[in-house]
Amino acid sequence: MTKRAIVLISMAAMLTITGCIKETYNMDILSKKAHLSPTLAIAAVRGDISISDLKNLPNDTVVFDADNFIRLVFKQDSVLDYSIDDYSDFDNLAEFHINEVYPVSGSMVINIKDTVNFEPGDDIQIEKMGIKTGVVNYSVRSTSLVSAAFTIKLPTVLTGGTSPVAKNITVPANSTVTGSVSIDNTVVDLSKDPDMKYNRLPVEYSITPISGNFGLLDNMYVKIDIPSPNFDYAKGYFGQQTEMDQDTIDLEIEEILDHISGGFLLSNPSITISYKNSFAIPTEVDLKAIGYKKTETIPLNLNPFPLSYPSAPSEKDKSATFTVDKNNSDLPELVSMPPQKISFSSSATMNPDGNDGSRNNYIFSDSRFMGDLEIEVPLEFSINNLQFTDTTDNFLKMEDSSDSPVNTEDFEFLRIDFKAENGFPLGISLSMMLYDTLTSHNIDTVSAATLLEPADVDATGKVTQAKSCSTSIEIDRQFWSSIDIANQIIFSFKLNTTDGGTKNVKIYSDYRIDFKASLVLKPDIKFDLK
Amino acid sequence: MISKIKYILAATLVLAAVDSSAQNSQVLYYMNLPQNHLLNPALRTTSKVYIGLPVVSGINLNVNNNFFNFSDVFVNGVVADSLVTIFHPDYDPAEFVKKIKDVNSFETEALVQLFGLGFYAGKDLYISLDINERVDANIALPGDILRLGLEGNEQFVGSKIDLSSFRGDAIYYREASLGFSKNFTSNLRMGLRAKALFGIAAASIDNRSLGITVNDDYTHKFNADLDANFSAPLTFHLSGQNSIDSVEFDDTRFDGAKNIVNYLLETQNLGFGVDIGAEYKINDRLKVSAAVTDLGYIKWKKDISNLKAKSEFVFSGVDMLDVYNGTMTFDSLGTELLDSLKNSFYLTDTKTAFTTYLPFGVTAGGSYNLTKNFSVGLLSYTKFIGSQIREALTVSANLNIRSLFSATIAYTAMNHRYDNLGFGIAFKPGWAQFYLIADRIPVTWNKIVSEGETYPLPSSWNTVHLRLGLNLVFGNKVEKKNDKPMILIKEEVTGKKKK
After folding, report:
1. What residues in A contact B82, CB-CB < 8 Å?
2. pTM of the model
3. Whole-complex ipTM
4. How far is A480 from chain B (nearest CA, A)?
5. Are strands B286-300 and B269-281 parallel, antiparallel or unpaired?
6. In this predicted model, what pLDDT tens digit does every residue of A283-337 receive, in sequence order?
7. Contact at 8 Å (CB) between A418 and A472?
8. Contacts with B, A 3-62, CB within 8 Å
9. Which pLDDT value is given to residue B6?
10. Considering just the CA atoms, what is the radius of gyration of chain B in Å?
11. What per-residue string of b and e applies to B254-273 under the rule 16 or more CB within 10 Å gives b?
């Protein structure tokens, strides 16, 4: 038994030691090629953002209402600033000149009454003026051989409201006497002539010979000048003067507009002019604007509107506002074109209803018209397939492929997974197309048709519920290899508001978008075994 | 002439003399060899005296891995006229990934016996003395980390990359043991082997928690709570907030033979171990035995460095609001991530002693003598390495003719393989006992051709285990029978002589 066991065990040992050859491996033909191609996924970008989180928004431009509705407000102070000095017609309002010859003879006092006609300008009828400072310059030349006592009196130029301005001068024989009389703080009444109750200034002279008689051929040459006094106010009728202004603004967005298509409408923009008017003259403003976009034109269609003015003399200033919005114009349509050019023309017509005879226009020496401009754009709009498309040279293509930091063989695919809870009523899609101009063919495209879907809104345009979106953008090897063929890349972004832009949506500052973008890539890491 | 041949053979085999190792040798257990007391201190050889000489002491190297073989890495038939690796572009890595286990371990053990002695004292007391130099290293790689490296992290979306089973230990120590075994009753024999352990160098990872959670949105949450302790002439240079800048090995400690010897004879890292075992004879044919071996620890106190990794951070990409507010840029994102990872590991100022535990084993078995010299055996060995449990179950046929000749054929199911055929043979011409043991005989082989040469290589690499060596043995202690013989010779019964 023992011997048999020994033999069996020895045989078994021999068999097991020699064994059997399962497989042959020839290391001389070992391929040195090796690669690793793991699929890596990593969170790349995230955000949970609402507009109220953005810290650097200019507070004076982005305005949040109490209910968080957002308005964009652009203010510019003093965009309109006109003073009395800007009106040339008022420059020499109270200026007048007299150059008369009065024959004198005999020994008696000669009393002369004359009237000076003011010519302030077309249609201007001045009844009264208050003079702050001024002088009456006079020059009296006597051809008489006797000296004379000469009195000049302006009976309707009252100092302190009661005392007429007068000047007694002595004119030596055959001499010229010049001088001036102050008319500071006087009121000039030009309405005393019953035939013409405006622009008329009576002047009275009293000439008395001193030590003798005037000869038959004696004359008094009288010149009186009131050179541009500083008037305090002027009352009357200042005509239907019209100031016109024209301008064309080129927004220089033609190149951008060539890449944009689709509909966009800002629902309720407005332009408000806040002004302070101290010209107590009824004035009507006619503001015209036309937007041009290629062959399309949209006029503003704003009717002329009156400016508020003070009820002088008790009221010297009047503050008011005027708003141009969708209720009185086609401003939303014009702004939403958007226009390449806007031509403006404006006119301001005083006394648009003409002269009713009341002559109740008042202007003051410091009369001004100052206006602040405020453009308000409430973020309420609709967007219907607003698409921006741009074609660029293929910047991804390298002149020498060895310069490329990424070879097509290095990736099996690269995918961007995008997920979002979109609380904005705005949807975005995008695409990137490789284009070959030689064959006029699109070679390959990566797109995200529903990168973001707009959130649902209620009847007022406010979001009721965020929208969950999930999309993947995959760039595979075929795309990478197509880069070398294409010579142009066409980018396209499309925006839509809720329901395809068929309703207006509103933007509130508490809207949030919570998004996460992850990168999934499968690199093909090649190396050689040593 | 015969003596000369014996000595030539002895000299030849000295070069390959191997002593036992911590990896249990299933084949050895039922062989009549002095080394069997290392597997169960209650076992002993029939030789009265055994000496294991430093000159002939063996270096035993075991390499075990539970997840790949040569054929798993090199593949024929994928590309015509070529041999490819699993990294070849035309090879489907999923084929390799299928073979990855949840915990993939790689263990290596080395042992150098400096001295061995065993002898009987008195009636049945057996005393043994052994001094061994041992290096044990093992690493367990979670399957997830291999899948992560080969296939990426996308497959883990919505789950956790569990790395809590990651562990690693490497210890180099000297073991001096004194063993006793004795019959306590006529049937029960018990043995004890006490070991003093002298640690020389160690690296140990204590992993309480390690993992990466990949959420559905691809954000990653890293968590780590583990310590790495070292007992070695290493200096960690710090930068910033206790983060590691560089590591320097102090090789001046090994300048000259004297310094080397001083380092190797270091006794500050002390430990203690014990093997206990028992053998019970149910009857003359049937025996059962059990043992617990390598129960022990070493407390490391010299050249200590402690690294801690305790952090939890989430990588979720760049927050656009931070970019908008200027507090973050895309360029700084990568730097911030690396800094977070780097700052997760920091060096503590403490030089805290740490303890490593030996991977202990539990053995249980039984043998049945079919004849006086021939038995069949069943043996179970369970090894505990950290949280891993390794089981080996062996069925063997054993022939032991005193100390003259021993042979065993064994079949073992272990290490996820069920084709482990083992063989052992020992014979004693004179004082020298030669033995050759293989717990796993490569049944199938691969042929490796390289530069015109051909080399055989076992096709399965899960277990590479070979032991051969030389013992000096003297005398043969035969166990007295105290029962009736199994086979009665007729003449003894009738008193007549058989013709």
Report:
1. 29-31
2. 0.65
3. 0.71
4. 19
5. antiparallel
6. 988 888 899 988 889 999 999 999 999 998 888 899 999 999 999 999 999 888 8
7. yes
8. 5-6, 9-10, 12-13, 16-17, 19-31, 33-49, 53-56
9. 36
10. 28
11. eeeeeeeeeeeebeebebeb
